[in-house]
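Exercise 7.
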Amino acid sequence: MLIIRSILFVLPTLYMAIIWLQSSHFNPESVFALSSHVSISIILLIGAALELAHFFEFGFLYFLLILLFLTFGKLDSKKEIIAAFIAIVYGLIDEIHQHFVPFRSFSLFDLFKDCIGVWIIWYVVHKNYYKNSRLGTGLRIITNLYKKDKKDVPYD
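Solution. The predicted structure, written as tokens, is:
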């Protein structure tokens, strides 16, 4: 069980490192080079997809943190708040970091999208944990791996 907990600890940490590295690099020349080979409408679609990625990027971080926290017991509001806080604060740290990266900038709108993404995943996890859904069952399985008294994990 220690192996699973270790993996679930490494995943959010690794994911945060990937976010950091990804936001550290932007080369406008690569976009210019791409524009000579690809239609402008395709470039706009790629740009729109990258903007939408904010909704999922930090929501996914929240989800990875929840998976880790479930190895310490059933889902509760304290775990949800801590995971959301970490994900949102990391989004803020990433935006501040981007302020110092050439060709990148701090954006409150990006931070807002990060918060919306966390809220959406929070809602999905919160609503499904206590339901007899695939997601809820999967989340409870993680909790049950580490529970001494498996009767504490609710099932509807």
